Prior knowledge:
heterodimer; A: mainly alpha; B: mainly alpha
Amino acid sequence: MPQNILTADKKHRKLLGGLSDTNLLMTITIIVFILMYLFAIIGLGAGFQKPQTFFNILNANAALIILSSGMTLVMITGGIDISVGGMAALVCMSSAVYLDMHGGSVIGALLISLGIGLAFGLIQGFLVAYLDIQPFIVTLAGMFFARGMTTIVNTNPFNVQNEAFVKLKETRIIIPGLGSYNKRGEYIDAYIEIGVVVALIVVAALFVFLKWTKTGRNFYAVGGNRQSALMLGVNVKRTTFLAYLMCGILGGIGGFVYFMHVGSGSPTHASGAEMNAIASSIIGGTMLTGGVGNILGTLFGVLSLALIQNIVSSMGLDQPWWTGITNASMLCIFLVVQSIIIARRKKVNLSGEKPKEEGAKK
Amino acid sequence: MNPNTRSKTASEIITGMFRKQIFIPIAALLILAIFNLIVDPSFFKVTLGQNNNGDPILSGNIISIIDYGSELAILAIGMTLVTAASRGQDISVGAAIAISGSVVLRVLCGTNSRPDELQAPIIVAFLVSCIVAMSFGAFNGVLVSIFKIQPMVATLILFTAGRSIAAWINNNELPVVKDDVFPVFGGYIPGVPIPTPFFIAILCFIITWLVLKFTNLKLYVQSVGINEQTSRLNGLNPAFIKFITYVILGLCVAVAGFIKVSRLQTINYSVVAKDIEMDAILAVALGGNSLSGGKFNIPSSILGAYVIQFLTTTLYKFEVQADALPAYKAVVVIALVILSAPIVREKIGQTFKKLRSPAQAESNG
Lengths: 362, 365
């Protein structure tokens, strides 16, 4: 039996060429995304053929892309951060209150957002990295703290009227050549919001960071095996701390981008964002066990999740509960697939190491 | 008797008391009680009044604590077992309560959302909700034990989907039960002035105590939590034991959900048992149980749960909004986990030794 597994694995390897785990999972996600989009264009027609539909998905999910990127960083080091959603809500509410009730400037609001993110990152990073407390407990407390603080800052949801901010919010970057004609035959330009640009810059920067800098590579080393990373001279604690710190700052930026998209403060903003961020990272090929992951995969993870929601709602299942149920079942499927991959690899490793012993037993 | 026991000094007795696990919640309870006593002694006032039916009932802050803390205490039983065996917590309990409560109402009301009489006996509704909640517990258990996903990530699935499923079960309607017997489980038995949930919590505790006394569950759960590999080599099935703890938690969720819907005779999917997962985890931590598995103490957790409710009531008294409560509790959780972190404990121990050693040197010299 073990020989069968071995040979099967060899074939498997040949078929997929020299793809590593990181790239394999990411490639699957990208292929699935493209197939789904093709299905949507062919099966559901009209709406999905317009480029603007794709740009709308980007516009609506720019904040989620940034939050998920932070989550991916933490998950690569083997941790998790479920406070990102709460953080985003707190950032929205604080910025909104600052802009409208204290007559603040947009720059000030941006600084507040970054400050909140930085504070969360510093405290959570310190607790997880240096005091060795389970990341889940720390960030769960962080999530509840952020949600509670949001209500303390202001209870009622409200729209921001600040002129400078509204101007910023409504700035649209026109993409030439991809517009479409509406029913009256007028040409409408395709556009993206500023948040999308920010998100793409974040993704590009983190891609470079993880691929070509020493610190970025340390993230993978720490997540893959703490012990060997320590023996190789990686400062494990500092690297873990850095991951949470970056996730916190990205939470601040993501929160502000979310704020630019919705233009209001509310305690219920970004509810479930932590779940979506984790799901996107996992769908994008980041392993919960750490050491494996890719920012580009996360980008496609977010887009896949959003696309599925769009497909589900355009198929007529638009009751509010379907979003929660589809998201959760997607997460469930990808988690199970991942754990099967891990279990299979362990089995192959074991049987690869000791084929003789196993054979003798039979 | 051991002759050494008699020669125990007072300081040894005190340090022995400090080491008892149940000391932590008792200390927290005392601190809260003294705080309230200083700020406002009328906090402890209990009055005997009458409800709408003319039955005698007790009311006051203490009564509301033992009333509303009961669901939490019941959840804490299951959460302690899950924490001990799987080294992680189930964060889907709030959503699961919404589901089981929704099932109870669905069975009691049938397709009509406001029936004049019950469509099914209460016991049937309760049993069906038990089965549903236990199967959701089993779902979590399978993800954790067979697919080896970290408990909190595995239960995150139900945490997100749970309230949506609850709304889906009743087609997003809010059924209202009209019945004389149903409200008793979340209110008062006619003629008994103490709230019923408290009795249900005691009953649950007695059952758990009996189960732990007459089966090997406690031993198995602890050994799996302390070292999974070793317990597997000793012939236990760690996956099955973890699975069982999640099913037990499912049962606790069903009971808690039943009390929740019985209180209001209806349900609000987005609000029912909101943030209760945080409280349940806090109760386990406050009970002195390690959040990373291993040894556990059920009575300690239950006491912890009532202390949490004490804290909630105290915060309410200071006019803290319900939605803002988690912020304060999060601070308490962080303080607790920092104090119980091994690194911090070591540091504290070292400081104590340094403080003590000069004194010892003096006494020896």
